[in-house]
Design goal:
- The chain has two domains: 274 residues, Alpha/Beta hydrolase fold, catalytic domain (Rossmann fold); 173 residues, no CATH class.
- The strands form two sheets. Strands 1-2-3-5-4-6-7-10-11 form a nine-stranded mixed β-sheet, with helices on both faces.
- By secondary structure, the protein is α/β, with parallel strands linked by helices.
- Helices cover 39% and strands 17% of the residues.
Length: 459
């Protein structure tokens, strides 16, 4: 498949590339790049004769924003090497920087940074409840979504790199971006000079069930840790759950806040920088009204932002597919949840959950209801193509450094180390100092350490 990916990139030819706007502010210069790329990079390749390709001429738009430190003159900036940042997700657009800070400040000393909106996100032919139905039936929509996984993202990136006139570039993958980096090393290693990965070493084999069993165990442990810090929040969580079982509370979008949707507040547990904010959320929970205690408008507004997938529906649609290789995921997190009854919404004490996706999302989230049928088809798809080449990774010659967070509740430490051992030359920095959002905590130091590791490997 690595050969197929490279062949598809070569066959695609020159890519339409325009720069529509340039700006300078707060010590940096930006440029907005638009690229026209094939929807289907692989459908006409002999390696995949069974794949139903879209029209040969069908294209989509891929957007990326360039950031350069104003400390470099424009002439100096032109000679800087490129660094491609691969965002977490799936379904998350590239970061929008108001200023250089953290890891981007460190990187901008030596690189031109390219923040990619992965296909289907941001300004890259976005997918949502309004655009996806334009594809036709749920079956046609599901077929379209097949083209929005890491292999296609990597093929896009290679066309972007060539359009920019860059040689092999540095790639930096955070979370799901690290998964994409492993696909890049599998299918287009000639485009990569060096790779940095934070909280994103994907399992190369196995099933989604393996991932979620590890995830549920770590989330349970993180619940225990949190409630030792804020024991009063245990009482508040139980009070909210009891209230929601008795009283209908409605979010600003008109959707009901149920106990299981409230459990999604456990997303805060996955970070160093966010975990304490869970306490501030809970302290706003109740207010007194003429009709007794109700959940406050402030609390409901905040919960809206946590439980709604209106801004990134691809996350809900495609999240489990990032583990799909040759088998259906079949709502893996929901099935595995049955093995952990302590996470059920009727459990007492109630545990908060992490980033898992469940089929009831498509019933309870108004933004996802129109996508319920296509979500079922994606979950049932059995013939997902491989996302990695174990043989290519075992023979890897590209310097790679990865931060593995020991207590990460989203990307399991043990599974990460298994993957690290399977990638030739990959250097691991294992640490308990950070959680999944480490680059938001001390991104400058993390980036500097990983870059130093790959640079030392080149010497």
């Amino acid at each position: 498949m690595a050969k197929a990916a490279r062949a598809a990139v070569r066959a695609a030819g020159p890519v339409a590339h325009t720069v529509r706007a340039r700006h300078e502010f707060r010590g940096m210069r930006t440029a907005e790049h638009y690229f026209t790329v094939p929807l289907d990079h692989f459908g006409h390749d002999a390696v995949h004769p069974d794949r139903q390709a879209g029209p040969a001429s069908e294209t989509i738009t891929v957007f990326a924003r360039e950031y350069v430190s104003a400390a470099h003159t424009e002439a100096e900036a032109q000679s800087l090497p490129w660094l491609l940042f691969l965002q977490g997700g799936p379904g998350g657009r590239g970061p929008r920087l108001a200023s250089l800070g953290g890891w981007s400040k460190a990187a901008a000393k030596d690189f031109r940074i390219l923040m990619l909106d992965q296909r289907g996100t941001g300004l890259s032919s976005p997918i949502d409840r309004n655009t996806l139905p334009l594809r036709g039936t749920p079956e046609q929509q599901a077929a379209y979504l097949e083209h929005f996984r890491a292999d296609s993202i990597v093929a896009d990136a290679e066309l972007v790199r060539l359009a920019l006139g860059s040689g092999p570039w540095t790639i930096y993958g955070q979370s799901y971006g690290g998964f994409c980096a492993l696909s890049y090393l599998s299918f287009a290693p000639g485009g990569v000079k060096e790779a940095l990965i934070t909280g994103g070493l994907a399992p190369l084999s196995g099933t989604a069930d393996d991932v979620y069993r590890a995830t549920f165990r770590r989330v349970a442990a993180r619940n225990d840790e949190y409630f030792t810090w804020y024991p009063e929040d245990r009482t508040t969580v139980e009070r909210i759950a009891a209230h929601l079982r008795q009283v209908r509370e409605v979010l600003p979008d008109g959707g009901q806040l149920t106990v299981e949707r409230f459990q999604m507040a456990g997303a805060f547990l996955g970070g160093n920088t966010r975990v304490d904010a869970l306490h501030f959320l809970l302290e706003d929970a109740f207010t007194e009204t003429p009709h007794g205690s109700r959940l406050s408008d402030a609390f409901l507004e905040q919960m809206q932002g946590i439980v709604s997938r209106q801004s990134n529906p691809l996350y809900a649609l495609m999240h489990e597919s990032i583990y799909g290789q040759g088998q259906a995921t079949d709502w893996s997190a929901w099935r595995v949840l049955q093995e952990y009854p302590e996470f059920r919404p009727e459990a007492e004490p109630l545990l908060l959950t992490g980033e898992m996706v469940y089929p009831w999302y498509f019933d309870q989230d108004p933004a996802l209801r129109p996508l319920r049928d296509v979500a079922e088809l994606v979950a049932a798809k059995k013939d997902w193509k491989p996302l990695y080449s174990p043989s290519r990774l075992a023979a890897n010659t590209i310097p790679v450094a990865a931060a593995v967070y020991r207590d990460d509740i989203y990307v399991d430490r043990d599974l990460s180390l298994e993957t690290a051992a399977a990638v030739r030359g990959l250097q691991v920095w294992e640490t308990a100092d950070f959680h999944h959002d480490g680059i938001s905590d001390d991104g400058e130091a993390i980036f500097g350490r990983l870059l130093g590791m790959v640079r030392s490997a080149r010497r």
